């Protein structure tokens, strides 16, 4: 196949194509890794779809599709692969409800990127949307545990899933609120970036850096006694603007 033409992108923007593509990839490709969805796998998938319905800031037909899927999935105690595939097809028949067949990677284009990049972006977006839409301190964060379950049971890169589960087991239970979820995922993603920098996983056009770089957020890094440190309040401000609805662009979507 001929490679897709290179798209000119702006790193300050978030592209709906990437997060929507991550959603369709999870539902169409990764959810079918089991012949049967039941028990823990099924509850992880139910929780994931429910979280998308609550917090994914998607286009209306995509949200309608997800709501229909959630409604169908909720009462199930087991779902075979063919029932799942049929359900995904049926939801397209409802008025103004659809999900694209194939992914379009924009901010996540590149030789070794696509879905894993989209999955990180999707979950950063969801942790921020959760903090913006449900900032009450007394309700426990739900996006991070959902991501943990999703990655553990469904993420096709099994080695990645094991690494992520190890980080989750070590410290995810210390996360107390929604802002804490944003910061936990940001810092763990940077830990992964540091581990992978210079390895074969790196696309030379997209070096693994400690993120966000200064040109995206000049106030996020501060120098104290000659040491570079992160300012977590600035990180939160930056995340809540970078991963806000207003920063999501529909470019390259059909
Ligand atoms: P990605 O790391 O995928 O990041 C995507 C985009 O997010 C970047 O382009 C940038 O815009 C932004 N970003 C970068 N850092 C941050 C941050 N700290 N906070 C917020 N946004 C950020 N690969 C392995 O080889 N081994 C592993 O163990 C491994 N574990 C993984 C675990 C998970 C949960 C996931 C989702 C992926 C994992 N991967 C692993 C894949 C790897 O992390 C990258 O996703 C992949 O190499 C593609 O890299 P990328 O250049 O697109 O940037």
Structure write-up:
This protein is mainly alpha-helical and 254 residues long. It folds into two domains: 14-91, QSOX sulfhydryl oxidase domain (Four Helix Bundle (Hemerythrin (Met), subunit A)); 115-249, ERV/ALR sulfhydryl oxidase domain (Four Helix Bundle (Hemerythrin (Met), subunit A), Up-down Bundle), CATH 1.20.120. Helices cover 51% and strands 7% of the residues. The chain is built from nine helices and six strands. The protein has helices at 16-28, 39-55, 60-73, 81-91, 115-133, 143-154, 158-171, 178-196, 232-242, and strands spanning 14-15, 36-38, 78-80, 221-224, 227-230, 248-249. The strands form three sheets. Strands 1-6 form a two-stranded parallel ribbon. A two-stranded antiparallel sheet has the order 2-3. Helix 5 packs antiparallel against helix 8 (178-196). It binds flavin-adenine dinucleotide. Flavin-adenine dinucleotide is lined by residues 108, 112-113, 116-117, 119-121, 124, 151, 157, 159-160, 163-164, 186, 189-190, 192-193, 196, 201, 203, 206, 211.
What are the defining features of this structure?
254 residues; mainly alpha; Four Helix Bundle (Hemerythrin (Met), subunit A); 2 domains; two-stranded antiparallel ribbon; 9 helices; 6 strands; binds flavin-adenine dinucleotide
Write a short abstract of this structure.
The chain has 254 residues and is mainly alpha-helical. The protein contains nine helices and six strands.
Task: Spell out the blueprint of helices and strands.
Layout: E1 14-15, H1 16-28, E2 36-38, H2 39-55, H3 60-73, E3 78-80, H4 81-91, H5 115-133, H6 143-154, H7 158-171, H8 178-196, E4 221-224, E5 227-230, H9 232-242, E6 248-249
Parallel strand pairs: 1-6
Antiparallel strand pairs: 2-3, 4-5
The structure holds flavin-adenine dinucleotide.
Residues 108, 112-113, 116-117, 119-121, 124, 151, 157, 159-160, 163-164, 186, 189-190, 192-193, 196, 201, 203, 206, 211 line the site of flavin-adenine dinucleotide.
């Amino acid at each position: 196949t001929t490679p897709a033409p290179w798209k000119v992108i702006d790193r300050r923007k978030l592209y709906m194509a990437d997060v929507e593509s991550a959603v369709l990839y999870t539902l169409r490709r990764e959810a079918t890794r089991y012949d049967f969805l039941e028990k823990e796998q099924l509850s992880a998938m139910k929780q994931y779809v429910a979280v998308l319905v609550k917090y994914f800031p998607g286009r209306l037909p995509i949200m309608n599709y997800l709501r229909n899927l959630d409604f169908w999935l909720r009462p199930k105690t087991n779902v075979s692969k063919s029932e799942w595939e049929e359900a995904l097809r049926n939801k397209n028949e409802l008025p103004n409800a659809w999900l694209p067949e194939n992914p379009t990677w924009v901010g996540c284009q590149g030789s070794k990127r696509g879905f894993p990049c989209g999955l990180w972006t999707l979950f950063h977006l969801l942790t921020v949307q959760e903090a913006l839409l449900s900032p009450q301190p007394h309700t426990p964060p739900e996006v991070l545990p959902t991501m943990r379950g999703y990655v553990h049971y469904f993420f096709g890169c099994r080695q990645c899933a094991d690494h992520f589960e190890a980080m989750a087991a070590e410290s995810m239970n210390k996360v107390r609120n929604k802002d804490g979820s944003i910061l936990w995922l940001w810092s763990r993603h940077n830990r992964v970036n540091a581990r992978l920098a210079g390895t074969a996983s790196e696309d030379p056009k997209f070096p693994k850096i400690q993120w966000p770089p200064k040109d995206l957020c000049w106030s996020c890094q501060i120098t104290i006694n000659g040491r570079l440190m992160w300012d977590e309040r600035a990180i939160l401000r930056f995340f809540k603007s970078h991963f806000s609805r207003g920063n999501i662009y529909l470019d390259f979507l059909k």
